[in-house]
């Protein structure tokens, strides 16, 4: 009689392992879906270096205003960055290059696209 009990325990353990693995895989997939696809893009790196301190992670607002959804073009953003506006100070080209500003604009546009 013990042998059927051992088989049932083994079956229950295998089921528990399978269920745990399935749940963990689902959580990992959900977590990956929440991360921006461009998490290591040059635009994000430049944004994190210069903009994140005021505009918060992914431009969602903090000390400075929310940037997402983002609808400004490169020339407008470059003018704001170089000249400043409102509470935002001017930022020199030695701190953020024109090319980095362009990458930041592309990054913020990518965050504004609806999820697929």
Specify the CATH architecture of the largest domain. Orthogonal Bundle
* Shape descriptor: elongated
Residues in helices, as a percent range: 55-70%
Low-confidence stretches: 29-35
Account of the 3D structure:
With 116 residues, the protein is mainly alpha-helical. It folds into two domains: 1-34; 42-112, Cytochrome c-like domain (Cytochrome Bc1 Complex, Chain D, domain 2, Orthogonal Bundle), CATH 1.10.760.10. Helix content is 61%, strand content 0%. The protein contains five helices and no strands. The chain starts with a helix and ends with a helix. The model is unreliable at 29-35 (pLDDT under 50).
What's the short version?
The chain has 116 residues and is mainly alpha-helical.
Ordered list of secondary-structure elements with their pairings:
Elements: H1 2-34, H2 42-50, H3 52-55, H4 74-83, H5 98-112
Helix pairs in contact: 2-5, 4-5
Question: Any key phrases for this structure?
Answer:
mainly alpha; Cytochrome Bc1 Complex, Chain D, domain 2; 61% helix
